[in-house]
């Protein structure tokens, strides 16, 4: 089955290969290629590696999100490295995807939520950030063919932002979904031209369409340059529409009743405190159903991965191809009595799966190293032989971790930052709620609010597994968790922790919130090289917001 041919006059396999592309090859390419040679990922004289980035939507790590993906675990994880401490700085689609593409924290790419006003696929994003994404660098500086298929950014295709005719700079082949995840009845931009899809499983189911167009790319691309593919599935995002053959799968599966399921977060910020405990039976039924359907949709992703790996193998390219599998944010189903969503600071929302295979990566490895999605761009550029120093990225290349480099100096903390969203008017289905909240379904329990705005330092070092968070709300609420003793983040230790340590974490958070590039990679509070330097807090952004609480806290 071939649903989306790459070319209307496609040549036979083995014949001359010419594909329509989103833009023509950049000038002076041969001169620029010198910028990407001779570094770790691209040894001189060898064929430069290909890279595939598979990105799921809303797939958690903590609640067993990888369980349905048996083939993916076997074909990627067991053939390479699985990370157990992979995080996203912002647990929401658009800010997280912007971090992947730019290698920057949200305060540097300025995409703060899923709206155009929040810079999601806005004109400003297109002008300032898109030319500097890592795929754009791969194409313009390294001569890679770049292929995108699937969900891009939630506002992609909006009329006010150029519609579906806008093809972001840096992509040779562009098959992007208009707006947010769907499985049927959607429109794709195919190199800038709209194509509508209906609801016939055999030709329209989006995960399968992405698989087929990806296989087509592998068969008909040019063989003279390396390639980068980003395949971004709708699964397991709502509306959780499974393929027909999977709609009865996992009938005996329910959302995990783990230690923070259906309990009340009494010592947490007000949005958690407003949740209703115990949840109603209808809420629990709703979230169990959502959990089951999410897993069902992932079975088609597992099929996609299998088809892709087999085609790479058949075409003789698997041994020279890195494959990354990850998600844009985690998810929760009933934790702290919040029925379903993301956008919270806790592990279930900020932790994601990350599996990588590729040349030089030994099979069956797991790594506890602290990595974040801002590291994907630097790592992939490193594979292509492009130096991170030439970019403005905040992340780090974890290629040395993948290759088992000994005595590696690595970071011990990352920044998590989120700007809450709310509605200006009262939700008519929940008249008792004031304006300023959002995502209040089911049972009028709200998952987000304007002042669900927070920033955290997430630390994992040899001795510490710690999270320190501050809210920009009326209480200036602080949450601190010792995850060694309390992996489910039930006990907020902000009032019992050593005040000196609390002060250091407060400074470290302020520093990270204003960091840029190299200053985002400085030693954390528990590293031997840590030092407090107030100048770093004003390095590139002029000022930081005042923290009222810090005076009486310290
Ligand atoms: Ca998402």
Uncertain runs: 1-20, 23-27, 38-44, 540-554
Based on CA inertia axes, which overall geometry fits?
globular
**What is the total tally of β strands?**
20
Main β-sheet, spatial strand arrangement: 7-6-5-4-8-1-9-12-2-13
Number of domains: 2
Major sheet attributes? 10 strands, mixed
Average pLDDT score: 91
Number of helices: 15
Fraction of residues in helices?
10-25%
Hetero groups in this structure are: calcium ion
Percent of sequence in beta strands: 15-25%
**Rg from alpha-carbon coordinates:** 23 Å
- Return the structural class: alpha/beta
CATH class of the largest domain: Alpha Beta
Query: What is the correct CATH architecture of the largest domain?
Result: 3-Layer(aba) Sandwich
Describe the fold and architecture.
This protein has 554 residues and is α/β, with parallel strands linked by helices. The protein has two domains: 12-414, Alkaline Phosphatase, subunit A (3-Layer(aba) Sandwich); 415-537, no CATH class. It is 25% helix and 16% strand. The protein is built from 15 helices and 20 strands. The chain has helices at 29-33, 70-77, 93-102, 106-109, 123-129, 134-142, 201-204, 206-220, 270-273, 281-314, 347-350, 376-384, 399-402, 499-513, 549-553; strands at residues 50-56, 81-83, 86-87, 145-151, 173-177, 187-190, 193-196, 227-232, 321-327, 332-333, 340-341, 354-357, 365-367, 371-372, 413-418, 437-438, 448-449, 454-460, 465-471, 478-482. The longest helix has 34 residues, at 281-314. The N and C termini lie far apart (65 Å). The structure holds calcium ion. Calcium ion is lined by residues 57-58, 93, 237, 328-329.
């Amino acid at each position: 089955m071939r649903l989306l041919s790459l070319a209307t006059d496609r040549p036979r396999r083995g014949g001359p290969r010419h594909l329509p592309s989103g833009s023509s090859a950049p000038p002076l390419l041969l001169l620029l290629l010198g910028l990407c040679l001779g570094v770790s990922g691209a040894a001189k004289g060898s064929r430069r590696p290909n890279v595939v980035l598979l990105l799921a939507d809303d797939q958690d790590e903590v609640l067993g999100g990888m369980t349905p993906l048996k083939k993916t675990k076997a074909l990627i994880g067991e053939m390479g490295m699985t990370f157990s401490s992979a995080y996203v700085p912002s647990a929401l689609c658009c800010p997280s995807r912007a971090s992947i593409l730019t290698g920057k924290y949200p305060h540097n790419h300025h995409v703060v939520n899923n709206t155009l006003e929040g810079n999601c696929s806005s004109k400003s994003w297109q002008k300032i950030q898109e030319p500097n994404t890592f795929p754009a660098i791969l194409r313009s500086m390294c001569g890679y063919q770049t292929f995108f298929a699937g969900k891009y950014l939630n506002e992609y295709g909006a009329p006010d932002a150029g519609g579906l005719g806008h093809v972001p700079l840096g992509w040779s082949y562009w098959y992007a979904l208009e707006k947010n995840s769907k499985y049927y009845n959607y429109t794709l931009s195919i190199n800038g031209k709209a194509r509508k899809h209906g609801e016939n499983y055999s030709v329209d189911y989006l995960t399968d369409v992405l698989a087929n167009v990806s296989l087509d790319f592998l068969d008909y691309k040019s063989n003279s340059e390396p390639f980068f593919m980003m395949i971004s599935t709708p699964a397991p995002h709502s509306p959780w529409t499974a393929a027909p053959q999977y709609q009865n799968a996992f009938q005996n599966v329910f959302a995990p009743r783990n230690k923070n399921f259906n309990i009340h977060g009494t010592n947490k910020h007000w949005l958690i405190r407003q949740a209703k405990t115990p949840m109603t039976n209808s809420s629990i039924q709703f979230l169990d159903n959502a959990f089951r359907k999410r897993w069902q949709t992932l079975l088609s992703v597992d099929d996609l991965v299998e088809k892709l790996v087999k085609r790479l193998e058949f075409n003789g390219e698997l041994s020279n191809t890195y494959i990354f599998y990850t998600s844009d944010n985690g998810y929760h189903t009933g934790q702290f009595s919040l029925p379903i969503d993301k956008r919270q600071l806790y592990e279930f929302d900020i932790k994601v799966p990350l599996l990588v295979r590729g040349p030089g990566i030994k099979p069956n490895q797991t790594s506890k190293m602290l990595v974040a999605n801002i590291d994907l761009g630097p790592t992939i550029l490193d594979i292509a032989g492009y130096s991170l120093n030439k970019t403005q990225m905040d992340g780090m290349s974890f290629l040395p971790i993948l290759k088992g480099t000994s005595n590696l100096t690595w970071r011990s903390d990352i920044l998590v930052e989120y700007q809450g969203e709310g509605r200006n008017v009262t939700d008519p289905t929940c008249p008792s709620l004031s304006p300023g909240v959002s995502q209040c379904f089911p049972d009028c329990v709200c998952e987000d609010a304007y002042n669900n705005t927070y920033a955290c330092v997430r630390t994992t070092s040899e001795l510490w597994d710690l999270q320190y968070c501050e809210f920009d709300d009326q209480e200036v609420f602080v949450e601190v968790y010792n995850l060694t003793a309390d992996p489910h983040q039930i006990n907020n230790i902000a009032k019992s922790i050593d005040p000196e340590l609390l002060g250091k974490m407060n400074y470290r958070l302020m520093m990270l919130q204003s960091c840029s590039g190299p200053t985002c990679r400085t030693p954390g509070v528990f590293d031997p090289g840590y030092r407090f330097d107030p100048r770093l807090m004003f390095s590139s952004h002029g000022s930081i917001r005042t923290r009222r609480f810090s005076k009486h806290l310290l």
